[in-house]
Amino acid sequence: MSILAQIESKIHTWDSAQAAVQTWQAQGETVVFTNGCFDLLHYGHLHYLAQARDLGQRLVLGLNSAASVARLKGPHRPINDELTRTWQMASLSFIDAVVAFEEDTPWELLQVLQPDILVKGGDYEIETIIGADIVLARGGRVLTLPFVAGYSTTSIEQKIKNS
User: Fold this and answer.
1) Do the Cβ atoms of 131 and 114 come closer than 8 Å?
2) Which end of the chain has the smaller Cβ count within 10 Å, N or C?
3) 125: CB partners within 8 A, 6+ apart
4) How far is the C-alpha of 102 from the C-alpha of 109, rounded, in Å?
5) pLDDT digits (tens, 9 = 90+) for 9-61
6) pLDDT tens-digit readout, 74-85
7) How far apart are CA 85 and CA 33, in angstroms?
């Protein structure tokens, strides 16, 4: 399979992501889920995503759609379009599936996917993580990973504006 085909095979609809998660779980693999905008990919993102993948055998990334990012971050975002962000995420070796969602939160997507572990960055409290109820109800785990200080899309955006 070509590299382009490998990348494309990681980009899923909700239905195909659900089927992949069910297959992996049936094979005894632990499926980790995280989500975000991932607008300007930086070291903090890469570090966090690699750590998330180390928690299980598969990592599924819920990607905020362009419309969702604009609602959450403002009309000047996203900086990178949805296709670019999707392909960037699917290009990473430690991500097994990328699935976009239009809603402001991944709650409905988590209802469909039912991952074993839900993970967010250390700037979240477990009690405030959207979808924690879904994962915990099926006996899964909800974790936060340490935030990598000094790296954020907002700081990169400001640096570009100030240059």
Assistant:
1) no
2) C
3) 144
4) 10
5) 999 999 999 999 999 999 999 999 999 999 888 898 999 999 999 999 999 99
6) 888 888 999 999
7) 17
Could you tell me the pTM of the whole model? Answer: 0.92
**Cα(136)–Cα(116) distance, rounded to whole angstroms?**
9
Question: For residues 146 and 123, is the Cβ–Cβ distance under 8 A?
Answer: no
Q: What b/e string do you get for 135-162 counting C-beta neighbours within 10 Å, with b at 16 or more? A: beeeebbbbebebbeeebbeeebeeeee
Residue with tokens 């996203």: 78
Please provide the size of the chain in residues: 163
Complete DSSP assignment for the chain: --HHHHHHHTEE-HHHHHHHHHHHHHTTPPEEEEEE---S--HHHHHHHHHHHTTSSEEEEEEE-HHHHHHHH-TT--SS-HHHHHHHHHHSTT--EEEEE-SSSSHHHHHHH--SEEEEETTS-GGG-TTHHHHHHTT-EEEEE---TT--HHHHHHHHHH-
Q: Which two tokens stand for residue 136?
A: 């915990």
At residue 93, what is the residue type?
S
Using the structure block, give the residue that is written with the tokens 């570009």: 160
User: Which candidate, 46, 76, 72, places its Cα nearest to that of 148?
Assistant: 46
